[in-house]
Every structure is written in C-alpha cells, then in structure tokens.
Amino acid sequence: MVAELPKEIMMQINKAAKMLQAAKSVCVLTGAGVSAESGIPTFRDKQTGLWENYRAEDLANPAAFKANPDFVWGWYQWRRQQVIDKKPNPAHLALAQWQKSAANTGIHFTLITQNVDDLHEQAGSDVSHLHGRLWQNRCSCCQNLSKQSPNPSENAKQALDNNLVYCEICGGLLRPDIVWFGEALPKNEWQIAESAAAACDVFMSVGTSSLVFPAAGLAGIAQQHGAKIIEINPHPTPNTIVDVTIAAPAGRALPLLFEQLQGI
C-alpha cells in the first residue's frame, strides 16, 4: 500500500485512474521533474564549479563545440559524472510496471521522454528519447553512433576523462548524442511521438512544464484527436486543454495512480 496524498489530490488521482481504465491506448511524456526526483539536476539549474559562469545554452550548441570542442566535451563528461550513480525513483518504477501490465492486457502504451539519462531503461521501460541520450556518442562528421558505458565497474575513470574521442570509421570528433540548441529532434523518435499522441485515448504529461516545444505540442495533437489530457506536476502550468491536474511529485503520484488502476 502506497501512502496517500492529501484528499484533494487523491480525488484527482481517482478521476485519472477511471479515465485511464477506459483507455485502449495511452501516451506518456516525461520531463526533467521525473529525473530531478532521482537527484539529477535539471538542465535549467545553475551551473556549478568550473561551469558556474556559463549558461547551458552557451555550451549545448554546435557552434560552441566547433569553436571549443575540448571545453564542451569536458562539460558533458562532468554532466555524466553527475548522473553516473543515480537510480530510478518510484515514478520510473511505476511507469515500467504499468508498461509491462499494459502489454499483458492488450493496452497500447507509449513512453516518451525529454530526459537524456537512462533511468527509464534502468527501471525496465521501453522508451523513446526526444532529446537524445547522454550515454551515447555520435560522430560529428559521419553520424556513426557509439555507446559510452555509464557502469562504474567498467573503468568509469577512463570512460569519463576529458580527452576528445575520434570516430573509428571516419576519424571525425565524437560528440554527445544530444539534441543541441538549433538542431532538429531525431526524425524517427518524433514520428513515434506524433503517431502515439494522435492515436491515444489518454495523453499524460509527467514532470514537465508543457512549455518546451516541440514536445509540448504533443498534448495539443492528442487533444485535437479526441484524447483526454492528464498532467502530473507539483507546479502545474496554465494549460486550458488539461482535463485532470495532479499537483504532486511524480514519485508520489504515479505509484498511487498505478495502484488505483490495478484496483479498479
């Protein structure tokens, strides 16, 4: 039994559960708030240490990498170091359980994330990454992909040093496989997201402000095709298309919501 939230929030969770119980297709979008509950700083948090005088926008862009690849690469190695020991929280685990349960009962469940960490995967989910993957690199020239192991047992010190890495195929510089400012979202992942939003009966936004486009437009796509919209966010954003707002942290609300679904 998961500890309950205040009565007003529980009423919204119950309402959402009944809405979801009737759904044959569900699309869930997660954002930075979900990872923040595992201790991962959000992209907008103030930089620290060597990076405190820089905005993320000044580092996460192609021009910055071209001008000073060592510096940008070092920043991403630092970011990787910040998340290397982070583990899935109850929100990640509840979504993984829900996805597995949906597969067993014939419900179409699509999980999409704006987060670049691998906590959904660690929890056991199949997830589509709209903004890329922190633990994956790609060549800045030929776009060849390569993994960078986040496992401390696999010589993390060597994996996270600041030396630039070069492509084994063409010799070009490797860069993090992250969508930088000024770059388009990955075509395949965006098509998955658009299709899932257009086809779902219920679209749920979790831990994201619904203000970062184009991902924020997915709720609108879902609503235009007749879906109900649920938002889970301790600080809900003004959005007239939301049908149910659960003003609570995802790590508290999602386990309760899944528990309610199991009990209906």
What is the structural class? alpha/beta
Q: How much helicity do the residues have?
A: 25-40%
How large is the radius of gyration? 19 Å
What is the total number of structural domains? 2
According to CATH, the fold-level topology of the largest domain is Rossmann fold
Task: Write out the strand line-up for the largest beta sheet, numbering strands in chain order.
Answer: 3-2-1-7-8-9
Residue-averaged pLDDT: 89
Q: What is the CATH C-level name of the largest domain? A: Alpha Beta
Write down the secondary-structure element order.
Answer: HEHHHHHEHEEEHEHEHEEH
Q: What portion of the residues fall into strands of 2 or more residues? A: 15-25%
List its traits.
264 residues, alpha/beta, Rossmann fold, SIR2/SIRT2 'Small Domain', six-stranded parallel sheet, three-stranded antiparallel sheet, 11 helices, 9 strands, 40% helix, elongated
